[in-house]
Each structure stands twice: as structure tokens, then as C-alpha cells.
Known about the structure:
With 118 residues, the protein is of the alpha+beta class. It has a domain of 76 residues: Alpha-Beta Plaits (2-Layer Sandwich). 20% of the residues lie in helices and 23% in strands. The radius of gyration is 20 Å and the shape is globular.
Amino acid sequence: xxxxxxxxxxxxxxxxxxxxxxxxxxxxxxxxxxxxxxxxxxxxxxxxxxxxxxxxxxxxxxxxxxxxxxxxxxxxxxxxxxxxxxxxxxxxxxxxxxxxxxxxxxxxxxxxxxxxxx
Length: 118
């Protein structure tokens, strides 16, 4: 079973996370997600445990547990569906910094670029 682990302390290492989950059974893999530019942890990761019963025990036992001053979130990871991946079109940012438009951030003028229009 693939397990999502969130609200991780930024200082935690993959070996530490593996040891935490190994209390509940075999851990096949551990991956803490990091920023591709800075290399700093993004505060979440994934654990793969081959035995589903052990994985569920780990979820039940570790969800909400305090690790280095932070209460971690642990739950079953569900793969993203194709519809989740295609919701945002290429270049869509979800904020008002993209596109061409007015300098005042007014979205009526083709995008509302706060940094200045063309």
C-alpha cells in the first residue's frame, strides 16, 4: 500500500521516516518530496509497505503523532486520476500574475498582470 505522509518536519530524513514506519512492518520504499531548485523538503512524502494490514496499522498508529514538534498526517495515498492531472491547462497559474493585461491587476483586461501589461 502506498501511504501519504504530510506535515513532516523539514529536518526529517528518509532513514528516520523509514524507522518510524518499520515499527509496523516491512517498508519497501520511502520518498520525501523536495523542491527541485533548492533541494529543501516540501514537508511531505510517500511510504510503500507491501503488507496492507501492516500499512493500515501504521496509518492508524501514526496519524496525528507528534514528530519533532509537528503532528504528522498519515493516510492512504490515492493515485491522481487523469481528470485531476488535466484540470489546469498549460500555463494556467491559478493567480493573477500571468497573462497580458492592465497594470492595476484588473482581470477584465485580458489577464490582469500585476507586474505590468504589454
